[in-house]
Amino acid sequence: xxxxxxxxxxxxxxxxxxxxxxxxxxxxxxxxxxxxxxxxxxxxxxxxxxxxxxxxxxxxxxxxxxxxxxxxxxxxxxxxxxxxxxxxxxxxxxxxxxxxxxxxxxxxxxxxxxxxxxxxxxxxxxxxxxxxxxxxxxxxxxxxxxxxxxxxxxxxxxxxxxxxxxxxxxxxxxxxxxxxxxxxxxxxxxxxxxxxxxxxxxxxxxxxxxxxxxxxxxxxxxxxxxxxxxxxxxxxxxxxxxxxxxxxxxxxxxxxxxxxxxxxxxxxxxxxxxxxxxxxxxxxxxxxxxxxxxxxxxxxxxxxxxxxxxxxxxxxxxxxxxxxxxxxxxxxxxxxxxxxxxxxxxxxxxxxxxxxxxxxxxxxxxxxxxxxxxxxxxxxxxxxxxxxxxxxxxxxxxxxxxxxxxxxxxxxxxxxxxxxxxxxxxxxxxxxxxxxxxxxxxxxxxxxxxxxxxxxxxxxxxxx
Amino acid sequence: xxxxxxxxxxxxxxxxxxxxxxxxxxxxxxxxxxxxxxxxxxxxxxxxxxxxxxxxxxxxxxxxxxxxxxxxxxxxxxxxxxxxxxxxxxxxxxxxxxxxxxxxxxxxxxxxxxxxxxxxxxxxxxxxxxxxxxxxxxxxxxxxxxxxxxxxxxxxxxxxxxxxxxxxxxxxxxxxxxxxxxxxxxxxxxxxxxxxxxxxxxxxxxxxxxxxxxxxxxxxxxxxxxxxxxxxxxxxxxxxxxxxxxxxxxxxxxxxxxxxxxxxxxxxxxxxxxxxxxxxxxxxxxxxxxxxxxxxxxxxxxxxxxxxxxxxxxxxxxxxxxxxxxxxxxxxxxxxxxxxxxxxxxxxxxxxxxxxxxxxxxxxxxxxxxxxxxxxxxxxxxxxxxxxxxxxxxxxxxxxxxxxxxxxxxxxxxxxxxxxxxxxxxxxxxxxxxx
Amino acid sequence: xxxxxxxxxxxxxxxxxxxxxxxxxxxxxxxxxxxxxxxxxxxxxxxxxxxxxxxxxxxxxxxxxxxxxxxxxxxxxxxxxxxxxxxxxxxxxxxxxxxxxxxxxxxxxxxxxxxxxxxxxxxxxxxxxxxxxxxxxxxxxxxxxxxxxxxxxxxxxxxxxxxxxxxxxxxxxxxxxxxxxxxxxxxxxxxxxxxxxxxxxxxxxxxxxxxxxxxxxxxxxxxxxxxxxxxxxxxxxxxxxxxxxxxxxxxxxxxxxxxxxxxxxxxxxxxxxxxxxxxxxxxxxxxxxxxxxxxxxxxxxxxxxxxxxxxxxxxxxxxxxxxxxxxxxxxxxxxxxxxxxxxxxxxxxxxxxxxxxxxxxxxxxxxxxxxxxxxxxxxxxxxxxxxxxxxxxxxxxxxxxxxxxxxxxxxxxxxxxxxxxxxxxxxxxxxxxxxxxxxxxxxxxxxxxx
Lengths: 464, 435, 450
Hints:
Strand content of chain A: 15-25%
Largest sheet of chain A: 8 strands, mixed
Distance between the termini of chain C: 25 Å
Radius of gyration of chain A: 27 Å
Number of strands of chain C: 17
Oligomer: heterotrimer
Number of helices of chain A: 14
Largest interface: B-C, 70 and 69 residues
Structural class of chain C: alpha/beta
Shape of chain C: globular
CATH class of the domain at 83-378 in chain C: Alpha Beta
Helix content of chain C: 25-40%
Helix content of chain A: 25-40%
Shape of chain A: globular
CATH architecture of the domain at 83-378 in chain C: Alpha-Beta Barrel
Order of helices and strands of chain A: HEEEEEEHHHEEEHHHEHEHEHHEHHHEEE
CATH topology of the domain at 83-378 in chain C: TIM Barrel
Strand content of chain C: 15-25%
């Protein structure tokens, strides 16, 4: 009898002891045990356990115990930190379909056929007054074009789990989407389908390439489009007020309509601008229509920190430090400019400008880590480098509740690696996106109950 | 019988006299002027005697022969005519004319046999506008390619281009291949075909290719010059190269950047040429090398921007002063046809930024003559030299100065041009609107 | 360039009177005992100028400097009004032309001004204090312009001339006509290709602008009556044309041939607006009575010609002729290079055609100020006007003269002595000159490069 009561107390005690662990997880539970955890939002924990359930971090702490149904990974000697966010890229987008520059037609000998009659005669004012501008495609959404491409696998192996994917080309370029770099379907990737309107105040082609052919023209195109959006909104309101009768109905233009969230401050506007005058121009354009600006690129942002601070404009900073006119500079001048550019992130950190480190301007995403290390050797602290690739981009892109740190409640995007986040020799051993073990380093044998040696976890997705 | 012989004698004398008068124009004496000789101190009250196209005498007291035309120039100054050592005068009109109308640029990269002076049109409209500012002589050169042609020294007046020619083959004009590439027919063709600008490797490769081609050409010409030849072996192009490759006449390398200045000097030294640099905007960065090899520089135009953003703002204006202090020969030239009239303005800019006034005047008179090896004929008011000179109300480098008389080859040239004619015509238009 | 910014800011700090030098927009100073060429009332010897907060408050022989105001010694120096370059394309980012449409009035130079262009400093070093930044000449109606004071080192907002009238560019003749086909482009050419077509573009554009004007007037009248009509489209390229019809925008028309200038005067008369200047107007000397009768200014080159077919009857005597006939003429640069020596270009009018030195000076000061509509506040040295000066070491038209100092709004923005001194410090000079010798120092046989 006394033995049964003792047993009962024992069961109760162990049940109570089990309480700090998560409530039973219906599916997809993992626990990384005994690792060094860089939370980013708070102090680094030298040895802690992180529990994941149904795609979400459910517990982080030194005294957290793994629930029984969790697949346990031994984290001794490893470091856990949030999945890195590349806050400006073209990840997941098919190669930009830009029309090639048309070649001059060959001139064969012999009589030429008569050219066809122009649809609208060239001397019609419709051809030269108020010309239809090129480069107005704000209705183009990255979210509609994203595909879980094979190339994403290589990216993830480095620790980047999340990206802002932005279309390229034009003045009012389109809408960027915040995506997780996983599959199997495009829908699985989208975190925020309308993360920002992308704008570049530059002509796609120069003189001779159609309207706009100059920066002035690009600014005029931008201005006219937002004026048209404003007018559309006004007209819609008048039409509704009139009971949708008695007045001509406003013409629906899907490009113009797609500008309304930005016009009404519901969506930020991401201006691609690298040199200081382009940055100032972008801020002035945003101010003209009371838009919420974010600067993508910002290579010379360090020269205009006062203006950026006054406009509360964060910077999705480029990691491309080679000067644009590198070929025409002497070696001394080029080194000096490269040093200046590489010091940009440190300068922004010092000036208190919110920024993220991004692959804007990089030709190969492989360079991402080398470039971050270059920024670190030019004054950016390791701490800030990690923040600028996790918490700060999450905050800038309005996703701080979901991403950017190892905190209970956030999406389980985690990197488990052998060393510090940007250390050259560090290897990613495990990678979690949305709480799924997406990547396991081939050499790694995870400690799992019932695991067959050499077997890969069932949920590895390489974007096939 | 006596009447007939008197008549014959008289007729003979008259014929002789008339023949003599037709054979030579009368002498001209400019008296009581301030004679700015350039080669010697100015004579405050002196005379210049012009005879048979030359300066016969100059001094405070000069005997004026009977029958001479005497022009009293008191209150005025007499100067030697200016010499523009880098122009396209006479062969240039509107640069964007129809294909076929232009004579400044030949096809191909190696054209040593083409002499610019062959196509000088004495009635070219630009020449009179240049004369009215005191420029009397010019070195006119073709452009384009690598060896553009031979530059010709001309006087800026004459009934025929032969009469204008002082030296048809005065210098070999070479556009030294620029290291940084760019420009020329190749670049425009790339633009048309939609290719981007060349990469650094492509540029370097193209530069090497052109430099090697130039070197090969000179080496071949030297071999040709030294070889025994039969008439059948004759090659017009290589014949043209002989005086230049053997160092008898100057080779002008047109260069801009310091890399090219150094490369051209090295080339000229290694090929043992008598060479001169033209343009040479970065000369101030290579003064030591220029002095070491005593390289003459035809500098200009000064009406140009510095090559680099970080260059001192006045570097193009102050380089002539630096060249003068450096000690190697230099002069100032316009580099243009329509802008040749601004040669005095170029010299004035040099004066405003450090070049002493007398040196600025020499830079457009005596110094170019010396560099081109014609200082025995031009560049100062000295007996025996050509009578190319002008009379002005003051310093010709002062833009407010008026020129009153101009002489080329000893003959007075009227100071009228297309501009003066249109000016007078429309000054005379009545003040009445007409429509 | 950064070096130049630092030294200029240092200079501004030294000379400006305000307690917060970096923020000072206007300065006070006293120029003592110089030769002052006023442009409006002749040349005054041994004269001093007192400037307070960017304005000229006194000019005279017996002035004394008040306490606390920096003094510039003017002995032997010539002070002229700051030079105004009426035709400039300096400091434009991303293309001087919006040349794709034939009418690009929606483009605005103000959107693309770059205050970091080194040519601003170089032009200050040539005595220029104000530039008129224009759209290019690729289309019959181009973009809107900007009037900029060369406050080197300041942001653009501080450089725009306060309350300068808005202007617009038009272009006639060869430039707009040949800007219609580009290498590699296919498809129809941009219209027009003839002078007749240029006239048609202008006529059609202003006809459409009239209709647009009426549409908006009707809308505003309806709103005033308390109705709620749909707003018409706000067309950025027609708005400036309406303002032209209402006389609110100054027109600067690039033109060469005499007949195309008369065409434009005809067209303007028909629509009831005025032309402010003919830019270049190289054959304007042939139609000076018509130009005078229409009160149009001519902003031209001193002696450039024969570089295009339509420039083959351009003459260097034109500025003097126009000045003598009572037409307001300015000499401009249309070139970063020429802008640095406009004082020489103006002097040429004395040489070609015998303009007086006063008339020549007006061509770079008072006349361009009138053309920009700012002659009440600048363009001459008069009490009450802006303190914009160029100070020379001799008569500006003399060969040995260069600019020593340039002052805008009472602040010294260019000081040659300080520029020369700064060269000895710049590490860049150490790369090229051994042994610490200055730029004008003696050179040994060792040479300065190798």
